[in-house]
Amino acid sequence: QVQLVESGGGLVQAGGSLRLSCAASGRTFSVAAMGWFRQAPGKERELVARFNWSAGIINYADSVKGRFTISKDNVKNTVYLQMNSLKPEDTAVYYCNAQATSLVGYWGQGTQVTVSS
């Protein structure tokens, strides 16, 4: 099992910045990929940014490229999402996700990000 705890959401004006954190614990050695998804009201959950360390790549949604940056602290088993130049359409619940080598997926509880215009 892998446990994920997110923090850092909140309310910000358009053009502002927020940083989300996701701390992993448990069987972290089994994690092959880790990143962030988001779900806005009435919409499906979508990928925002994700490390795939087994493939050695980072993926970003086109809508956040150049504005969001994913990073990690291997010592703390924590992944961050730095969000700059936020837009109202970035408003959503942001979920941390970890995928094990067995393809089992784990989700955090979600953190609300609200961007006012």
Descriptive report:
- With 117 residues, the chain is mostly beta strands.
- Helices cover 0% and strands 59% of the residues.
- The chain contains no helices and 11 strands.
- Strands 2, 4, 5, 6, 9, 10 and 11 form a 7-stranded mixed β-sheet that branches. A 4-stranded antiparallel β-sheet has the order 1-3-8-7, with no helix packed on it.
- The protein starts with a strand and ends with a strand.
- The model has no long low-confidence stretch (mean pLDDT 95).
Which labels suit this protein?
mainly beta, seven-stranded mixed beta sheet, globular, four-stranded antiparallel beta sheet, 117 residues
Structural class by SSE content: mainly beta
Radius of gyration: 14 Å
**Average pLDDT score:** 95
Quaternary status of these chains? single chain
Summarize it.
The protein has 117 residues and is mostly beta strands.
What is the secondary structure topology, with strand pairs?
Blueprint: E1 2-7, E2 10-13, E3 18-26, E4 31-39, E5 46-52, E6 57-60, E7 68-73, E8 78-83, E9 92-100, E10 105-107, E11 111-116
Parallel strand pairs: 2-11
Antiparallel strand pairs: 1-3, 3-8, 4-5, 4-9, 5-6, 7-8, 9-10, 9-11
